[in-house]
């Protein structure tokens, strides 16, 4: 009996040693049901100032921007905020300031590219620019302006950033209160722009030599891509017709000639003549839709296959279900009221949802501990050790390879991506089972990265082609 107890105690100690350091479980601020699941909301970090963006980084930390100019990493285990840099030329006035953020790993271990978009002042004129920093050894350095001199005002600046699976970057811009410019394909305002990671224009953009990806936008503030490539955006309407849009290259989204659906005679005429893509859903009265995420994790089954939307004026989290084609939103369900303006949202590989409040942005009623990062989680969910150990393991052979390689998966995986060492996507395969073949015939000899993405997270291995 004593021997059994000693073995059990040793197993517990060894198991504890394999776990990351964690804070004591935070007090529940509220709970609510999602189907048969109880979701608990707690505070990860407090006393922040207008959280604008949250992304899950390649280092398994949260990365955050605050509108005043600060970029930070946040430890999801302890809630510790680790400031990296307060960008000196950020201009915060009205809705302007430090806005969107994207983070990606580089081929150098522990080094990331960090993309930010913010407003700045140039000879007393407010403008907007996209800048890439390099992160290494706990610091941001080497700022490189990828796109600047974008017209701005104190409202309608956009601007979310999204790294696409093809190795390019999307950036949303608002109309900067210059409404006709949204329809002007030579203007950078009222657009979703697409750039290479060095700021050059992709050769296959809808208009040659133009960063335009889509146009006719008023003020898009949410942006995401699903594993199958579909892209969605949330957009602020005027006093009516907030929108969720499916983003398709080259399409016109109507503003300012169309508000919401093409359901008025003049709108219908304009839509027919200008290839306008109607929104999937609209809101009147408006809710001020902001951060947008996709949920596909077993921790909260009732949210799987849905968009999750933070709202500012609506002050609540919304679940937007998608049909199988991703072309309609059959239902909309509200959650998490009582925390004020909700702007930023991201989902971790563990199925937790992180939401940043925006109550100190001049339009909210901040509580004493605002602004906060909230965590929504199913505390009863425990991934088994077997699943955790196998979740994204895969074999890659032969390695080195020549014209073909085989991937043997330990668990179902949504997509396999082959990238070069600059992070550019060269090949994507959606496995139909536990094995997949990579056709390497079009790739030159060299070193590449093979990345597996699934509901439980991500794993990457090197592949050498001879």
UniProtKB/TrEMBL annotation:
Protein's recorded name: PQQ-dependent sugar dehydrogenase
Keywords, comma-separated and alphabetical: Signal
The keyword Iron is annotated on this UniProt entry: no
Gene3D superfamilies in the cross-refs: TolB, C-terminal domain
PANTHER family, per the entry: HEDGEHOG-INTERACTING PROTEIN, HIPL1 PROTEIN
Signal peptide extent: 1-24
InterPro entries reported in the protein's UniProt record: 6-blade_b-propeller_TolB-like (IPR011042), Glc/Sorbosone_DH (IPR012938), Quinoprot_gluc/sorb_DH_b-prop (IPR011041), Secre_tail (IPR026444)
């Amino acid at each position: 009996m004593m021997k059994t107890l000693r073995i059990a105690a040793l197993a517990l100690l060894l198991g504890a040693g394999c776990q990351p350091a964690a804070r004591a479980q935070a007090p529940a601020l509220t709970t609510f049901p999602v189907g048969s699941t109880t979701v608990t909301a707690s505070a990860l970090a407090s006393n922040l100032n207008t959280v604008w963006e949250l992304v899950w980084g390649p280092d398994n930390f949260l990365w955050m921007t605050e509108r005043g100019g600060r970029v930070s990493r946040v430890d999801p285990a302890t809630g510790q905020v680790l400031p990296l840099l307060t960008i000196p030329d950020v201009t915060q006035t009205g809705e302007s300031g430090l806005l969107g953020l994207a983070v990606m790993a580089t081929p150098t271990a522990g080094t990331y590219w960090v993309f930010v978009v913010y407003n700045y002042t140039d000879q007393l004129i407010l403008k907007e620019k996209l800048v890439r920093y390099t992160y290494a050894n706990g610091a941001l350095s080497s700022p490189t302006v990828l796109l600047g001199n974008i017209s701005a005002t104190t409202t309608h600046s956009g601007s979310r950033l999204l790294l696409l699976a093809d190795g390019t970057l999307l950036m949303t811009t608002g109309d900067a209160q210059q409404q006709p410019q949204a329809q002007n394909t030579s203007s950078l305002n009222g657009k979703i722009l697409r750039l290479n990671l060095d700021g050059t224009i992709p050769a296959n953009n809808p208009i040659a030599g133009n960063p335009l990806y889509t146009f006719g936008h008023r003020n898009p503030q949410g942006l995401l891509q699903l594993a199958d490539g579909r892209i969605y955006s949330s957009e602020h309407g005027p006093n009516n017709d907030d929108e969720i849009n499916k983003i398709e290259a080259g399409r016109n989204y109507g503003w300012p000639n169309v508000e919401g659906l093409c359901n008025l005679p003049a709108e219908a005429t304009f839509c027919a003549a200008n290839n306008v893509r109607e929104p999937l859903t609209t809101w009147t009265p408006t809710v001020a839709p902001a951060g947008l995420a996709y949920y596909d994790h077993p921790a909260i089954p009732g949210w799987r296959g849905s968009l999750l939307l933070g709202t500012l004026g609506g002050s609540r989290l919304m679940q937007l279900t998608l049909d199988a084609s991703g072309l309609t939103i059959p239902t909309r369900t509200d959650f998490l009221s009582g925390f004020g303006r909700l702007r930023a949202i991201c989902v971790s590989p563990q199925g937790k949802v992180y939401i940043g409040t925006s109550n100190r942005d001049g339009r909210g009623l901040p509580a004493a501990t605002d602004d906060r990062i909230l965590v929504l989680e199913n505390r009863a969910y425990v991934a088994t050790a077997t699943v955790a150990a196998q979740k994204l393991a895969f074999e890659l052979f032969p390695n080195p390879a020549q014209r073909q390689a085989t991937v043997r998966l330990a668990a179902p995986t949504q997509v396999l991506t082959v990238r070069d060492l600059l992070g550019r996507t060269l090949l994507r395969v959606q496995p139909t089972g536990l094995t997949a073949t990579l056709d390497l015939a079009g790739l030159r000899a060299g070193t590449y990265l093979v990345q597996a993405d699934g509901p439980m997270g991500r794993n990457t291995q090197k592949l050498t082609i001879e």
